[in-house]
Structure formats: C-alpha cells, structure tokens
Amino acid sequence: MDYTSLIPVADSIPAPAWLFVILEQLIFLLHIVLINAVLGGALIMLFGRNMEKDSGTAYNRYMPVAAQLPVMVALAINLGVPPLLFMQVVFGHLFYTSSVLMAVYWIMIIPLLILAYYAIYIHKLKFLRSPLLSKLSLGTAILFILYIGYIQVANNALMEQPESWTAYFAQRGGTFLNSSHQTFLPRYLHFIVSSVAIGGLLFALVFHFRKETVEKREESIRRGLRIFALATSVQVVVGCWYLLSLPREFILQFMGRNALATFFLLAGAVCGTGAMVTAWSGQFKTTILLTLATLAAMIITRYQLRIMYLNDHFSVSELTLNPQYGVMALFLIILVAGLVVIGYMLKVGFNKTERSAAQ
Question: Of 27, 41, 300, 352, which is least packed with CB atoms within 10 Å of its CB?
Fold first, then answer.
C-alpha cells in the first residue's frame, strides 16, 4: 500500500507558520527544562536516599529539593500544553494520526500524570514520618514519568515517519509504537541522561539560594555540579550514538551539507562541552548559562531533524494561510499574561515550600 495516501490534508493556519514554530520551541524549552529537572532530581534523590544510612543527613541533603518538586511538576504540566498546541497547528494532521495509531498508550498519559503528581506530594509529606512510603511514592512517580517520556518520544518519532504507518493494518488495536526503530533507544536515553544532568543542576540551584553556612552551601553546589558533569559526559556518548543512528543523508546534513543544521549541532556540542568543563571546576553561574545555550541549540536541532524526516512528505510552506490576526493578537496577549501569572505563582510557591522545608 502507498503510505502517502494515509497522510491527511493539512488544515489552514490563522497566522504565519514561523510564528507557531518559534512559540513552540520557546515554550518547549521551558517545559523540557522543568521535566528534566523533576525526573533527574527524583532519580538522584531515590538513589541517594537508598544509599544514605543517616536519616538526618538525607533530610538535610534531599528535602530542600523534594519540597520544590510539587510546584515544578504543576508548572511543567501547564507549560507542556502550549507547545503541544502550537505544534498541532502546523503538524496536526501528522500528530493526530500518530496519536491514533498508538491510542491505547497515548490515552494513559493523563491518568498516570495525575498519579505521578500525587506521588510527588506523598514523597514530600511522608519524607520523615514514613520513609519507606515516601521512597515508594518517589519510585512510582519516576516510573510514571519514564512511561510518559517513552510514549512522547514514540509519538514524535511516529509522527515524523509516515512510511511506518502501514503497520496499522497488521495491528489495528491502537498499540503500534514503532519502538524497534534504530533511533528510538538512543533518542529515549538522550532524554533520561539529560534529565540526570539537569537534576544535578537543580540541586546546585536550590542550595545556591538556601540560607546555609557557606561551607554547606558550597559543598552542596559542588555535589550537584559533579552530578551534572558526570551525566553530561555520558550524554556525549549517547548523543554520538543518536547521531550515528540517523539515516546517512541526515548525518551528512549535520556534518556540513546543511550549514544551519551543522551550526546548531556544533553550537550545542561546544556549549555542552563548555558546561561540563565549568561544572568540574565549580563555576555555577557559567554552567547554568552554557547549559541553557546547549538546550536552546539542541531544541533547534531537534526541529531541524523533524523537518529532515518530513521533507519527502510535507513542507511547512505548503500550509494555507487564512489570516485571523485579531484573534491571534488577543491570544498572544493572554499567553503573555498567563506566563506572567505563572511566574508569580512560581515565586510564591517556591517561597512557601522553602519556608515549609526550613521548619
């Protein structure tokens, strides 16, 4: 069967496509930083709490971060919706199809996300009163977030590869994942390892703003930076694996044939290496800035890879523009106002959890 006949016709869009693409990438950057921080922070805490014998030391070392996670999960969920909607405006005909092909797994995201949110709260509230329940709750939250990440990666990969959609006719129950594709495992591991790295930065960031003695604060910051550096060194290996798993023509584009793709891949690699070096040397602020630059470059590279995959099936330039600039202007005003409100809520929430953790 000709798979191109399965690709739906794209809907018209109310504003230029570049606007939705930029908005998607910008807000996705905020979303993925938070998701990485939550998952990485949780993984570090679960490992550390199981290794730590003294409950008092564990409390002092991990509770300041545990107190922040519920607010961060709520914020990550809210910031996950806009980029998903912006992406659906441009690539909705592809995304909806891939979601239907894996509908059984996709529909489970919402209930598991709610359960993960509750589990993060239980971990915090039962940290001292019931350590076993607290750790079990944290482990449960990690498993659910890993599942959600797995399904998100699977859906993005399936959306970008319409040629694999014909498998539906042999698997009509909405359970097709295409997870056997050669790029799937390194792509998923790329997400997990980067989460551990950002989780290390989360620990450094939290203790950077805590009212501790200088010695304790510096020790905690150095510990977080070391975790970041170690995870980033592993990420270099995973990133190379991911790159080499791509089709040869894509590798060549990233290796010089496409100047823009090569630039952003190289920028990400340079900034990531720089962040690893500054983390080893204990330069907290420089590491944060280089990490943000790395993530920005990698997100742009991710979008460029999407375009490469879809090049033979769909082009953004093919979309029909049906201008609705008044509606778009109102939407953007509400979006900015919403981000300001969320920022204020974040500040209040962090201040409150900081006071609760100190009591």
Answer: 352
- pLDDT per residue as tens digits for the range 191-237: 999 999 999 999 999 988 877 666 778 888 999 999 999 999 999 99
How far is the C-alpha of 250 from the C-alpha of 265, rounded, in Å?
12
Cα 297 to Cα 289: distance, rounded to the nearest angstrom: 12
Is 3 part of any domain? no
- Residue 60 falls inside a structural domain: yes
Q: Terminus-to-terminus CA distance in the chain, angstroms?
A: 65
User: Smallest Cα–Cα separation from 284: which of 227, 204, 197?
Assistant: 204
Task: Give the Cα-Cα-Cα angle 70, 213, 349 (nearest 5 degrees).
Answer: 20
331 close to 19: Cβ distance less than 8 angstroms: no
Q: Is 350 exposed, middle or buried (0-12, 13-18, 19+ CB in 10 A)?
A: middle
How many domains is the chain partitioned into structurally?
Answer: 1
| Largest separation between any pair of C-alpha atoms in the chain | 68
Coil/strand/helix, residue 321: strand
pLDDT tens profile 11-67: 899 999 999 999 999 999 999 999 999 999 999 999 999 888 777 788 888 999 999
In a domain, 2, yes or no: no
